[in-house]
Amino acid sequence: MAVIVVGGGIVGLCCAHHLAQRGRKVVVVDRGGAEAPPGASFGNAGGIAVTECVPASVPGLWRRVPGWLLDPLGPLHLRPAQLPRLAPWLAAFLRAGRPERVRAIADALSALNSQVFAELEPLLVELGLAGQLHRVGALVLYRDEAARAADALEWEMKRARGVRAEPVGRAEIAELEPAVGPAMTCGVFQPDWAHVDEPGAIVRALRARLAERGVAFETGEASAVTRAEGRATGVELAGGRRLQGEAVVIAAGAWSARLAGDPVRLESERGYNTTLPDPGVEVGRELIFGAEKFVATPLALGLRIGGGAEFAGLEAPANLRRAEALLTLATRALPGLRTDGGRAWMGHRPATPDSLPVIGSSPSTPGLFHAFGHGHLGLTQAAPTGRLIADLVTGAPPPFDPAPFSIARFGRSAR
Ligand SMILES: Cc1cc2nc3c(=O)[nH]c(=O)nc-3n(C[C@H](O)[C@H](O)[C@H](O)COP(=O)(O)OP(=O)(O)OC[C@H]3O[C@@H](n4cnc5c(N)ncnc54)[C@H](O)[C@@H]3O)c2cc1C
């Protein structure tokens, strides 16, 4: 019998890849077919953000939130109608920002991120896409010293975990990235960061490679996990058809909570970007605007500018004005930027309140596994997640302690 993976985004496909490598029969179920990808994995910023080990919720963050919410170009947007529904997630988010919890989360994210290149590089070689990975670092930019100082805790926590973070001034910025204008006066260079040429191309190539290797793809909406004597036995698709399996992996991105089978807090953190095919500026590496919280990545398709965090659920239509707002900010930082001809996009980041993905076996249902909730880091962490899931499904020893990622951490409070 096969292992059934629900979700054909980058995380589900990496799980399928590692399971197939271990000789398991695999079926991937996705509601969109190969040509109709609805998930976050296709349009993201392409950053391999291995240095990002500090969670979104940190001590003192609440002091910055009102300013962000009031700024029409700000990085955070909450639709007021969503507040009652969001309240438990927001409460859990604030709880995750306690100092001792933040340290434990950062340690767990570091352990996962330390496995990224070891898993991603061979995968890209197998796909014939090794040349699409650029290990050229990323440059974090600030308007002034006060803005850089506001992130001091983040830099301190990263350095304490071995992340290389080199402060730079105006002269080094001009040398590293001449397209950055004088509005950005200081920054931090992170040599360990990388980016890819096009995240969607990796998803498409991986899907094609898996199909060649005998992984089956089913188009359909998984509506429930089926069980017998308490054990997962497969999934039921909308319309009633059932797929039988020896195990089920839920990797359905921001849509995973309904199928998880255990209490969890998961929200869609919507992000926006615009890809400019002819940006008129040369950018050599990913640029990260530290205070404004958006990035510009030089992809093969053009310069992709985006970010932001909008909490508006899975159903509300995209508000592409959020993408335009980020372009406005980008033109202030990159004076020669041409914004015509851009393609705007919105994607649902699967966000947990503690910024840790949910990876592990279900505490309540043998045979059910979780691989979702990667938030801002799903492209980065997909390959080691796939490896960990294959270890857990096959009973092999994992390369690091998976306990911090277990869904059990949500406990009864998330029912
Ligand atoms: C603007 C933006 C920029 C980002 N930039 C980066 C970045 O630079 N680096 C990085 O590492 N990450 C980045 N991310 C995050 C990253 O894109 C996500 O974390 C990642 O794509 C999540 O992958 P996934 O496979 O879990 O989910 P998805 O890609 O969303 O895939 C989930 C799949 O599950 C399917 N599905 C859902 N429910 C069902 C169901 N019931 N039945 C069948 N199929 C179902 C969906 O159709 C979808 O194809 C960014 C995200 C956004 C929005």
Please describe what this structure looks like.
- This protein has 415 residues and is α/β, with parallel strands linked by helices.
- The strands form four sheets. Strands 4, 6, 7, 8, 15, 16, 17, 18 and 19 form a nine-stranded mixed sheet that branches.
- The protein has a single domain, classed as FAD/NAD(P)-binding domain.
- The model has no long low-confidence stretch (mean pLDDT 95).
- The chain has helices at 10-21, 65-70, 83-95, 99-113, 116-126, 145-150, 152-160, 170-176, 199-212, 321-333, 378-394; strands spanning 3-6, 26-30, 47-48, 76-78, 133-134, 138-142, 166-169, 186-190, 194-196, 216-219, 222-228, 231-237, 242-244, 247-250, 267-276, 286-289, 294-299, 302-311, 343-351, 358-361, 368-372.
- The structure holds flavin-adenine dinucleotide.
- Residues 6-12, 29-32, 37-41, 44-47, 49, 221-222, 251-255, 271, 273, 306, 347, 349-350, 372, 374-380 line the site of flavin-adenine dinucleotide.
